[in-house]
Amino acid sequence: MGTRFLPATKAMPKEMLPVVDKPLIQYAVEEAAAAGCEHFIFVTGRGKNALEDHFDHNPELERILKERGKFDLVEAVTSWMPKSGQISYTRQSEPLGLGHAVWCARDLVADEPFAVLLPDDLILSKTACLKQMAAVHTEVGGHVVAVSDVPREHTRRYGILDVEHDNGRLARAKGLVEKPDPEVAPSTLSIIGRYILHPAVFDVLDRKEKGAGGEIQLTDAISQTIGMVPFHGLRFEGTRYDCGDKVGWLEANLAFALARDDTAEAARDLITRFHG
Ligand code: G1P
């Protein structure tokens, strides 16, 4: 519900918050496309219609831009749009948890590996994070999630891996725990919002079991399939910004502005000015 970002998210879905000039959801779709995803399923809900409109044509806007000769802007509003037939929407009518949100897409996903991207985890990297994961998935199969080492006092914010083997880049886990207290967390390796999953998770999600916080947790469903399918966490190359948080979002704006040719110089000047 984007409560950490009120009042901005009172009438606007948090996925539409822009970083520099692009909404978070567009970054997620572009990352998925870069990784080779061909079909995009949005799990939406009440008040999220802006998401559907963002991924459709706006004929009036495009006509005016063309009349004014602003073809670069026509490109900016259309070039990244998946084609008709490549997008599906399903609604989660009650906020019962991330596992439940993913379960809502079960019939659209059917029986193949699929990716889950949580748009408020924004990743700046040379190679799209999901593309790095897809390359690993081709080798190891099963479930592959993006992971980061976090300070122990932060384990209660994340899904945490119970590591069996770790080569410093790829960790194989024998279990997963959702948001454990630091004293009992099996490691400090945490799940970031990028998953490539084996459809076996749907069999567990079908049971609608509640976990941490009384919610149907994706972490628990994945955990229950370990042993049947391999599970690996990839320490991806890149930096993750928590855009569900004010300061994380500000940091992302600076980092992305500094990484872009059209805004880098102005962003550097700005930082120098504020820094004194
Ligand atoms: C969700 C997952 C958690 C994961 C996190 C990544 O939590 O439940 O396992 O580590 O995303 O951002 P949320 O942030 O929705 O509470």
TrEMBL record:
Limits of the Nucleotidyl transferase domain: 2-228
Annotated catalysed reactions: alpha-D-glucose 1-phosphate + UTP + H(+) = UDP-alpha-D-glucose + diphosphate
Keyword Magnesium: no
Molecular function GO terms recorded: UTP:glucose-1-phosphate uridylyltransferase activity
Key words of the record: Nucleotidyltransferase, Transferase
Highest taxon above the source species: Bacteria
Pfam families noted in UniProt: NTP_transferase (PF00483)
Enzyme Commission identifier(s): 2.7.7.9
Cross-referenced InterPro entries: GalU_uridylyltTrfase_bac/arc, NTP_transferase_dom, Nucleotide-diphossugar_trans
Gene Ontology BP, a term: UDP-alpha-D-glucose metabolic process
Enzyme class: transferase
Record-stated family: Belongs to the UDPGP type 2 family.
UniProt xrefs under PANTHER family: UTP--GLUCOSE-1-PHOSPHATE URIDYLYLTRANSFERASE
The protein's name: UTP--glucose-1-phosphate uridylyltransferase
Species whose genome carries this gene: Paramagnetospirillum caucaseum
